[in-house]
Structure formats: C-alpha cells, structure tokens
Design a protein that fits this description.
Mean pLDDT of chain B: 86
Shape of chain B: elongated
Low-confidence stretches of chain B: none
Order of helices and strands of chain B: HHH
CATH topology of the largest domain in chain A: Rna Polymerase Sigma Factor, Chain: A
Shape of chain A: globular
Distance between the termini of chain B: 63 Å
Largest sheet of chain A: none
Helix content of chain B: 55-70%
Number of helices of chain A: 10
Number of domains of chain A: 3
Number of helices of chain B: 3
Helix content of chain A: over 70%
Number of strands of chain B: 0
Order of helices and strands of chain A: HHHHHHHHHH
Strand content of chain B: under 5%
CATH architecture of the largest domain in chain A: Orthogonal Bundle
Number of strands of chain A: 0
CATH class of the largest domain in chain A: Mainly Alpha
Radius of gyration of chain B: 22 Å
Structural class of chain B: mainly alpha
Low-confidence stretches of chain A: none
Oligomer: heterodimer
Chain lengths: 201, 73
C-alpha cells in the first residue's frame, strides 16, 4: 500500500470527497471500499435480490462519481448525502415498470428452499433444528419488512441497520424530522402487528 | 399527554431522539399508563428480533465497483 493510500485510510469521508473534487480518484476508491458493504446491505434489504442490490451499489457509486462535485461537506455529512442518493435509487428502481411486485417473495422462497436443502443435507441435531428455526424467523422478518410502505421501509432500514440519526434520515428523505418520527413509529407498529406470532419478549 | 403522542415519543425514545422535556413528560405519562409502559417492552423486543437479520457480504467480492478514469489534465 502506498503512503498516500495509507494516509487516505485515516481521512474523514468529507475530506476524501474534497480530495476527489480536486481530482484525486484514489480518494473515491477509499470511499467505495468503506461503503460498498453497508450500501449493499441497505439495497439487499430493500430489494431482496443480491444481483439487483449489487447493480444498485454500482449505479450509486457512478452517481457519486458524476455528481460528487455537488457535495458540500459544510452542509451535510457524506454518509447522509450518500444515503440520500441511495434512497432515490431505490425509488427509481421501484418505479421502473420492469419490477413485478411478487418478485421479492419469489426470490425469498427460492433462497429459503436452497438454504433448507443445504441444512437438511447435514446430520440432524439440535443445532440443525435451531438453525432451521432461525431461518424461518429471518424469512418472516424479511417478508414483513418488505411489506412496509416504501418510505417507512427506507426510514426503518436507515435507522435500525445503517444507524442514521433522525436528522440524517430527514435529510436523506427530504422531509422534516417530525415526519421521520412518525414514519418510524408507523413502521414499528406495522412490524409488531405483523410479527406478533414470532416475537417472544 | 395522550397515548397517541406518547407512543410516537416512545419510538423516538428507544432511538435516543427525545429532548429532556419530552423525556420528563413521557415518564409522567408512563407512571400513569401501564399499557404505554408495556409498549416500551414491545419496542425493545422488536429491536432484538430485527437483529436476527445480520449483515451479509456482497457475493461478487472480487468485482469492485469500477470508477471511470478521468481524462488527464
């Protein structure tokens, strides 16, 4: 690793974007390595298809490349700006006519069948049983999160899995903080109602 | 405080997103309302349940998103 690359590893995101805006592409490569996995997980939880999630990650970084000059580190954290781009990518994806509403459930069913087969191929034990139960609970959680209205789903994913604060979610969704509070309250209410039979307190 | 307002604040409280005044008013409400108090436990159980969905690695790890080369100068 070169000295410059080593130094980039310790720079704040906003500083890296400033370097990129000054023409240093390696700064953007560092941004990519920091955010590839969290962005992938955000998209995967939103769309339910690994390949689609990976394509959306690629498209998001291309947008950062093309429109990175419009980012102002004095106005927002880079992560907030990035998730704002990612949230818009999701909205565009769901608006596209190519997507059928049942796709997510179909994909999940396929994934579950494959996982069940591999687990069942191993000798039966209590750990296998626990694994199967865990898979079933995960599948229920995925389906119920997927059933949330789009804006609620983005808000709850940004909060629970990406760890964004309300102010950041508000910026990413272009809405007031009060709306974020209500979106999260409604999302949690729906999740609890729909997962009632699975959640043990 | 009405239960409907308290429930929204409870959701914000588990995220650490309430002001000290809201926290004070909420505590007063919870002391008098066992159903809203129970709601707090439900929200925590939901959060624990949601942690069942772990982070995953992108499957095409070898394929890093490509950044176009900028023309020199």
């Amino acid at each position: 690793m070169s000295l410059a690359a080593k130094q980039l590893k310790y720079e704040a995101d906003e500083e890296l974007m400033s370097c990129f805006q000054s023409g240093d592409n390696s700064a953007l490569e560092e941004i990519v390595s920091r955010y590839r996995k969290p962005l992938f997980n955000f998209f995967y939880r939103m769309v339910g298809r690994r390949e689609t999630a990976e394509d959306l990650v690629q498209e998001t970084f291309l947008k950062v490349y093309r429109f990175g000059s419009t980012f102002r580190g004095t106005e927002a954290k880079f992560s907030t700006w990035l998730y704002s781009v990612a949230s818009n990518q999701c909205k565009d994806y769901f608006r596209s006519s190519a997507r059928r509403p049942e796709t997510y459930a179909e994909e999940l069913e396929k994934e579950l069948a494959e996982n069940f087969e591999s687990v069942l191929a191993s000798p039966f034990s209590s750990s296998v049983e626990n694994h199967l139960i865990r898979m079933e609970l995960q599948a229920a959680l995925k389906l119920v999160i997927n059933s949330l209205p789009e804006k609620e789903r983005i808000a709850i994913l940004l909060r629970e899995y990406q760890g964004l604060e309300y102010k950041e979610i508000a910026q990413a969704l272009c809405c007031p903080i009060g709306s974020v509070k209500v979106l999260l309250f409604r999302a949690r209410k729906r999740l609890r109602e729909r997962l009632e039979n699975f959640i043990i307190e | 405080m009405k239960c409907s307002k308290a429930r929204i604040l409870l959701s914000a409280m588990i995220d650490g997103e309430v002001s000290s005044r809201e926290r004070f008013l909420l505590k007063q409400h919870l002391d008098a309302c066992p159903r809203c108090k129970e709601e707090m436990g439900d929200l925590r159980a939901l959060r624990a349940f949601m942690s069942l969905w772990p982070e995953e690695e992108p499957s095409r790890l070898a394929r890093k998103p490509s950044i176009p080369k900028r023309p020199a100068g």
